Amino acid sequence: MGEQTKNSGSAPPGHAAADWTVPQNWSGYTADQHAMWDRLYAQQVKLLPSRVTPKFMQGLETLRLSESGIPDFDELSERLHKLTGWSVVAVPGLVPDDVFFEHMANRRFVAGNFIRTPEQMDYLQEPDVFHDVFGHVPLLANPVFADYMQAYGEGGLRAVGENAIHHLARLYWYTVEFGLIREDDDLKLYGAGIVSSRSESVFALDDPSPNRIGFDLRRLMRTNYRIDDYQQTYFVIDSFEDLLKQTLDTDFAPIYAELADGPDYQPADILPTDRVFTHGTQAWAKRGDAF
Ligand code: PHE
Ligand code: FE
Questions:
Q1: CATH number of 5-286
Q2: What is the pLDDT of residues 67-89, one digit of tens each?
Q3: pLDDT-derived band of residue 124, with 50, 70 and 90 as boundaries?
Q4: Which of 252, 258, 259 has most ligand 1 atoms within 8 Å of CB, for mutation?
Q5: Whose CA is nearest to atom 11 of ligand 1?
C-alpha cells in the first residue's frame, strides 16, 4: 500500500464526477472478485479477534460486514449513516489531497471500488476495496473515531492553505493507517493498513523488530515513514478519546510553523524523551534482501 492521496490539481478521469466519485457498480463484480473478498475476510477474522481493539470487531458486527462478498456501498452507507452520519463513496483509486479532505470533512469516506488480484494478495500499490472497507469502515461506526476522522478532514483543508499537508499526513499515517492502542495494559491494533494486512497484523504486534512508542503529536509529525515496507516504528495511543482530545483541542497552525525548521526524525529513531514500549531490534529492516 502506498500513500493515501496524490497531489492536488489533477483532473478526475473521464468517467468520474467533479468530486472524483464513481458508481460502485456492485452488479459488475464477478464471482471471483466476491470470492477474493471472502478469502481475505476469512483470513483476517481468524487473526484479528485477539489482536485488534474490540471496537473494531464491534464495528464489523454492527455493520454486518461478512464473508458474503464485496459489500454494496449503498447498503453499507445506510447502516453506517444511522450510527455516525458517515457514508462510503466509490472512487477509481487515489484522489488529490483537497478532494480527499473535502469528502472526509463531510463524513464521506472514499473507497476504491476495485479488488486486488490473486497475485496481489499481500502487497498493493493503491488501496483496494478490501483495505478501504474492511480496514477503515468498522471504526467509522465508533462515534469518537468517527469524529476524529471528520476533524482530520477539516484539518486537512486548513493544512492545504498552510502548505503543511506533509506534516499532517504523518498523523494520518501513524494513527489511522498504522496506529496501535493500549488496552488493559496490552497493545492492540487499530490502524487500517495493519488490520487489512495478514502479515503486518502479526508483525506490528509480535515482532521484536519495530519500535513501539507512545503517541506524541509533535514528535510524530516530525517522523518520516516508510511506504515500501513494514513500519519501523508504531505509535501507541492511550484511547480514541485521548487522540481526539489532543488533536481537536490543539490549533495546528503554530505547530506547523514550529516544525517547518526541522529536525525530521528517521523512521527507526528513538529519542530520550520517547515513552518506549518496545525498543525494536530493527532486524527486519536490516535484513539485506528486498521485501
Ligand atoms: N486541530 C487541528 C487543526 O488545527 C485539526 C485536526 C483535528 C487535525 C483532528 C487532525 C485531527 O488543524
Ligand atoms: Fe487506507
A1: 1.10.800.10
A2: 999 999 999 999 999 999 999 99
A3: confident
A4: 252
A5: 152
